[in-house]
Design a protein that fits this description.
By secondary structure, the chain is mainly beta. The chain has two helices and twelve strands. The strands form two sheets. Strands 1, 2, 3, 6, 7, 8, 9, 10, 11 and 12 form a ten-stranded antiparallel beta sheet that branches. It has a two-stranded antiparallel sheet with strand order 4-5. The model has no long low-confidence stretch (mean pLDDT 94).
């Protein structure tokens, strides 16, 4: 059995004013977007109580948060209006219980989003600023060891898991 253990290291890149991916330094941690389906409560005859049923094909707001030690010019650039592309790469260690060996797994997330909050942080003598930026993500793609495992494209009704396009029927019905 293989057990995914923890993050060893990560790197964040984001597009600059010229649309070129640049490394973003001074990042303390990242909060990747939560994928939450919109729901509606169903109740009535045939149901014992109520069910908070996810609405097919509807995904709530996906927020990506970048927390940083100190404000620098890069974060001002990332506060701009318009599309910003992100690439996050991280490595996790994997423990193989059969061979008692440790290996690594490469994870990549590619995101497209828009800045919705820029907090430069606080000023305190001998303290970090602890600022953050938040982005509304509209396109999310995850690749593990070179294999795409998840793709969400909100504007094009695409939700693909391990190569299976789960919203193909929805797109076809809308034609």
């Amino acid at each position: 059995m293989k057990i995914t253990n923890k993050t060893i290291q990560y790197k964040l890149k984001a597009t600059d004013l010229n649309g070129i991916l640049q490394i973003v330094d001074d990042v303390t941690d990242l909060q990747l977007p939560s994928i939450e389906k919109l729901t509606d409560t169903t109740k009535g005859a045939g149901i014992m109580g109520e069910v908070d049923m996810p609405s097919y094909g509807q995904i709530g707001s996906m927020t990506f948060t970048v927390n940083h030690r100190a404000d620098n010019p890069v974060y001002a650039v990332l506060s701009r209006p318009g599309e910003i592309r992100f690439e996050v790469v991280w490595v996790t260690d994997i423990f193989d219980t059969n061979g008692n060996r440790i290996s690594v797994q490469q994870n990549k997330v590619f995101m497209t989003g828009f800045n919705k909050k820029y907090d430069p942080g606080k000023l305190e003598v001998n303290g970090s600023a602890d600022g953050s930026s938040e982005y509304e993500i509209v396109n999310y793609r995850k690749v593990v060891d070179g294999v795409e495992v998840l793709l969400i494209d909100k504007f094009n009704y695409r939700y693909v898991v391990n190569g299976v396009d789960l919203y193909e029927q929805l797109r076809t019905a809308l034609q």
